[in-house]
């Protein structure tokens, strides 16, 4: 057996040296990423610590038209503001106290008081409410029939904006109009909880069912709660008003027929071109058209449809029924 001899040590015929491990080239982009991740972690830690020590915040959104109508009907037997006085300051304070009990670990952002005024010029009473601490008065318009216009859109704008910017965690909404459903849905989509507060209705409801379905909780204030803030004017004598409905409330079919009447008038004055623009939005109507429909229908019926969400739905159904037959 041949002995193995060590390989020559000279350069000639020497086996190749084992490859040396070269240091990995520097990766500055990885260092930058690591530093950015570290900064992000530090920021998240600070934010979480701040959130843990920051109390939640709530706001109260009051549809004054609803409050006047519902409280007046419950306590004074009438929705006519001229027939009674409302202690708005006392009622607002009662709402704040109630919210303090319901949200004990939350702070109040403010109370938003939504009302109507002719040409949006505030009355003396509204000015006094605006001067109350933690109260913001927002005015829509008031038409010739003393109906609020634009108030629901103000509520929607404020509620959605505050929820989107995480300015509130809870919203107490005092109102009843079905048009507020979209605002509730939007606020909830941004993580806010919406609590619907109402005033006891006599012989029915004064809040739309669709609104009751969407909110996170419901609360109703009864006669005992409202009575201290409503005082009937003893010397008040209502003026005779034309086209006032004194009989029983119209049926859904009656209101649906009126909706079709208004649709026929609307179509006759605007033409089929306007119909083609309206149909893609079915079953929703643009705000301006919906307001026109409501005003015209109330004039024909001699009845305010405020607080009658089911009749307003029937009205819109009748409006659409006629338009769709003409397409």
For the record, the CATH architecture of the largest domain stands as 3-Layer(aba) Sandwich
Strand portion, in percent?
15-25%
Strand order of the largest sheet: 5-4-3-1-6-7-8
Number of strands: 9
Overall 3D shape: globular
Query: What structural category characterises the helix and strand content?
Result: alpha/beta
From the N-terminal CA to the C-terminal CA, the straight-line distance is 108 Å
Quote the average pLDDT.
79
Question: Largest sheet, described in full?
Answer: 7 strands, mixed
Rg estimate, integer Å: 33 Å
Low-confidence stretches: 238-246
Summed up, the helix count is 12
CATH superfamily of the largest domain: 5'-nuclease
Q: CATH class of the largest domain, please?
A: Alpha Beta
How many discrete domains?
Answer: 2
- Specify the helix fraction band: 40-55%
CATH T-level fold name of the largest domain: Rossmann fold
Describe it for me?
The protein has 327 residues and is of the alpha/beta class. The protein has two domains: 54-232, 5'-nuclease (Rossmann fold, 3-Layer(aba) Sandwich); 252-325, no CATH class. It has twelve helices and nine strands. Helix 9 packs across helix 11 and helix 9 packs across helix 12 (309-325). It is globular. The model is unreliable at 238-246 (pLDDT under 50). One of its GO terms (molecular function) is RNA nuclease activity. InterPro entries: NYN. Pfam families: NYN.
Q: What's the arrangement of secondary structure elements?
A:
Blueprint: H1 28-53, E1 56-63, H2 64-76, E2 84-86, H3 88-102, E3 106-117, H4 124-130, E4 135-142, E5 148-149, H5 151-164, E6 170-174, H6 181-189, E7 193-199, H7 209-214, E8 217-221, H8 223-226, E9 230-232, H9 252-270, H10 272-278, H11 287-301, H12 309-325
Parallel strand pairs: 1-3, 1-6, 3-4, 6-7, 7-8
Antiparallel strand pairs: 2-9, 4-5
InterPro entries: NYN
Domain NYN: 59-203
Region (Disordered): 1-26
